[in-house]
What does this fold into?
Amino acid sequence: MTIEITETVAMVRIATGSGWLPVCSSGLVEPGRAVVALLPDGAQAAVFRVRGGALHAIGNVDPFTGAGVLAHGLTGAVDGRPYVASPLLKQRFDLASGRCLDDDAVAVPVYQVVER
It folds into this structure.
């Protein structure tokens, strides 16, 4: 007799032009941390889980330096809106809109992200 056990693992997925891209298992994205995904078009996305548990995905490249470092930034919140501060020059980026909180003319891409 053979018993097969299958376990369903929730995955974090990012929307791309061709569908949902699996990034990693949900357990790998810890609150206050991020994981980086290389997208099919060559762009980098940083997937963050904020302290309340919600997921956000933004471009990982800091537009002020061109370095792929936003996933390494510190997260926080202003007026209840989560942000990440670049580890290089410390500009803050709204995780929901991608807008730079320190320079209205600058933003990073925002990606739709789900956990299923």
Observations:
- The first strand starts at residue 11 and ends at 16.
- Strands lie at 11-16, 19-25, 33-38, 44-49, 55-59, 74-78, 81-85, 92-94, 110-111, 113-115.
- The CA atoms of residues 46 and 71 lie 5 Å apart.
- DSSP finds no helices and ten strands in the chain.
